[in-house]
Structures are given as C-alpha cells and as structure tokens.
Design a protein that fits this description.
The chain is an alpha/beta fold. 34% of the residues lie in helices and 21% in strands.
Length: 317
C-alpha cells in the first residue's frame, strides 16, 4: 500500500546528447522518462518509500514505456490512466553548458491534459498518508481540476499535502495566469518547495525574506532551493540555511524533484520535524544530497539515487 500518491505529469524528455547547444543545433536526442510528479514518485521509491503515481498517458508506445518504467522502479501505477484520445506528452530539453535547461513541449493536447476528476482514484488517496502535486498540472483546465480535487480529498482524509512550485511559463496563457494558478495550488498545501527563480517570479525579488509574502495559515514548512547556495527552510517562527554539496553537474533536470523526494521521505519518517529545527536541518541536508546526486546523469528518472547511494555520499562528506 502506497504511503503517498503523486499526482501530475508523466512524459518523455528528449535530452540532447551533448551539452552547451540549443535545440536547433543538437546533433541527437536521448529519450528519458520524466515528468515532475513522476520523478518524485520514483525518487521516493528509490529511497524506500512506497509511492503511487496518478495521472494520464496515451495508449501508445511511449505511454506503455512510461508505465513500465514506473512499475519497474517500484511505483504503484494502479491509479495511472491510459487514453486513446490523445498521445503521451513530449518535451525537448536543451542543456546549456552549465547544466541548466530550456523546454519545448508537445501538448496539443497531450494525454495528461485530458485527466479529469472522474479519473481520480479516490481510494488510493484515502489509504495513503500523504499526497504530492505541483503547479505544472495546474496550467490546463482538466488536470488542474483533478489535482485540486485530489488535494482536497487528501486534506479531508487528514493526510498532509506537499506542493512543488514548478514554473513552466510556456504551459500557461500568460504570467498573470501562472501566478494565480500557482497560488491556488499553494493554498492547499502544508509543505511547499520553490526555487529562488520561482520566488522572484512570484514576489519580484530573490530575497528569501519574500517567502513570508507567500505564507498562509495552513503551512507548516516551506523550503527554498537556491542552487549552489543550498536550501533554506522556513516554519511559522523560524528559518535556517542548509549548505548543499559541490558536484560536477551533467544535467540539472529532476534535481528539484530529487530534493522534494528526499524531503518528503524525511517528513514521512519524522512528521514532527517541522517543529524541531535540528531535525529540519538534517532532513534538508539529506534532500540536498538527493538533488545533487540527481544532476550526475542525463535525464531525471534514470538519475534519481537510491537511499544507499545517498547515505554513502553523505558519509563521504
């Protein structure tokens, strides 16, 4: 039985076989399974947490490849739906020399955009302990309604809800719609993650103090991922910086999802950690390590580390 259900997108990332080039000049692309919510589900499974994925892919070769990939990673795919009405989503991801990315999506529409509340597996939510979703699923009407419905169902069952601000502006009609949609999702969560770029988009400033403008009464923990500066956690009454680990990044795709998986794994094991700063420091250090290790390979799901790999890495630091 899954401890957590991850709701959202599952797609194919096509990643250039060389770094430092744009999409037009890339000589070839490597197929990699991905999608932010799916990455978190796999990341949790690799860390030993029973996870399930809920969403929709096409009844096509790519959709079956993705379903098989999740199942092979130990993720429960019973809540996953397949449709013949649209094809599985694709994303071409350009890698710059510094490992950062540029996205171009093929969703006109894609299967994930057809995921409606009627397809939500309410039983899977009820029997879990937590639910995770992110703002990518809020950019289109059907998955937005489904994700918010799932979050409300989890909250009604007394579970905790985690939320990742994954800003993908090309998926939204405009910046104002993106800000409003992101805030709608954030209001449902007890645990939230966003990056310093996303903080700037939401508040106009990269100053960590701006996080307080996003705080609401239902929040217990907000984490700010800051790249090479590590991460900063915030509770209602406290905050602290947690240094990250210097690695030679190959591809940052999925690093934030790896961090999220590491953080959720820690919170499921220690649900009272938000009330104890020392424990939060330890949990975020572990999450930082998961994120760092995820950058050492191309693609997201192939790169997400096992708990043993993370623990070995931490022991060497």
């Amino acid at each position: 039985m899954a401890q957590i259900v991850c709701v959202g997108d599952l797609l194919i990332d096509f990643v250039p076989t060389v770094t430092g080039t744009g999409l037009v000049d890339a000589p070839a692309f490597q197929k990699a399974p991905g999608g932010a919510a799916a990455n978190v589900a796999v990341g949790l499974a690799r860390l030993g947490v029973a996870s399930a994925f809920m969403g929709m892919v096409g009844e096509d070769p790519f959709g079956h490849f993705l379903a098989d990939t999740l199942a092979g990673a130990g993720v429960d795919i019973a809540p996953l739906r397949l449709t013949t009405e649209a094809r599985t989503a694709l994303a071409f991801v350009s890698l710059r020399a510094d490992g950062e990315r540029e996205f171009m999506f093929y969703r006109h529409p894609s299967a994930d955009m057809l995921f409606t509340p009627d397809a939500v597996d309410q039983g899977a939510i009820d029997t879990a302990r937590a639910l995770h979703f992110d703002s990518i699923s809020l950019a289109s009407a059907n998955p937005r309604a489904s994700s918010l419905f799932a979050a409300d169902r989890a909250r009604a069952a007394g579970h905790f809800v985690t939320y990742d601000v994954n800003l993908r502006l090309p998926l939204w009609p405009d910046a104002a719609s993106a800000r409003a949609g992101i805030l709608e999702g954030l209001a449902k969560a007890q645990v939230v993650k966003l990056s310093d770029d996303e903080l700037e988009f939401m508040t106009g400033s990269r100053d960590p103090a701006g996080v307080r403008a996003l705080w609401h009464d239902g929040l217990r923990l907000l984490t700010l991922s800051r790249g090479s500066a590590g991460s900063t956690w915030f509770t209602r009454t406290a905050q602290n910086d947690v240094p990250t680990f210097k690695v030679q990044a190959v591809d940052t795709t999925g690093a934030g999802d790896g961090f999220m998986a590491g953080l959720i794994a820690g919170l499921l094991a220690e649900p009272e950690a938000p009330d104890q700063p020392t424990r939060l420091d330890r949990l975020c250090r572990f999450a930082n390590a998961v994120g760092a290790l995820t950058t050492l390979q191309r693609g997201a799901i192939p790169a997400l580390p096992t708990r043993a790999a993370v623990e070995t890495f931490l022991e060497s630091r």
